[in-house]
Amino acid sequence: MGPLFADGIYMMEVDRVLRPGAYWVLSGPPINWKVNYKSWQRPKEELEEEQRKIEEVAKLLCWEKKSEKSEIAIWQKTVDSESCRRRQEDSSAKFCESTDVNDVWYDP
């Protein structure tokens, strides 16, 4: 996944602050890579893989894709994402378990 998304860490942070039922909008690369890969001067395989990983992380976060049109994609965080995550027994994603919403710093 591109540096912007840091293997899902960015999206997990968005999920942490996103209220249940809220929307996340992504505009630009890699959305609509099939049309724009030449003008973005990036290999289409790279963009396709980047979007695939975004879709995969969104699914693990229990976000539902609502729309993709032109260079904009919209996902909605499910209202009951915690129960959705519990149903994902084979999930490889690591979610923050802190109950302190101000605890945003990574502590190795």
Present the secondary structure layout.
Blueprint: H1 9-17, E1 23-27, H2 33-36, H3 44-60, E2 63-69, E3 72-77, H4 81-86
Major sheet attributes: 3 strands, antiparallel
SSE sequence, one letter per element: HEHHEEH
Residue ranges: pLDDT <50 for 5 or more in a row?
none
* Total beta strands: 3
Q: Structural class given helices, strands, pairing? A: alpha+beta
The largest beta-sheet arranges its strands as 1-3-2
Share of helix, binned = 25-40%
Taken from the alpha-carbon principal axes, the silhouette is elongated
Q: What fraction of the residues are assigned to beta strands by DSSP?
A: 15-25%
Instruction: Determine Rg (CA atoms, Å).
Output: 15 Å
End-to-end CA span: 22 Å
Tally the helices: 4
Average pLDDT score: 76
Q: Would you mind describing this structure in some detail?
A:
The chain has 108 residues and is α+β, with helices and mostly antiparallel strands. It has a domain at 6-79. Helices cover 33% and strands 17% of the residues. The protein has 4 helices and 3 strands; from the N terminus they run αβααββα. A 3-stranded antiparallel beta sheet has the order 1-3-2, with helices on one face. The longest helix has 17 residues, at 44-60. The two termini are 22 Å apart. The mean pLDDT is 76.
Offer a few descriptive terms.
108 residues; alpha+beta; 4 helices; 17% strand
Summarize it:
By secondary structure, the protein is an alpha+beta fold. It is built from four helices and three strands. The chain has a domain at 6-79.
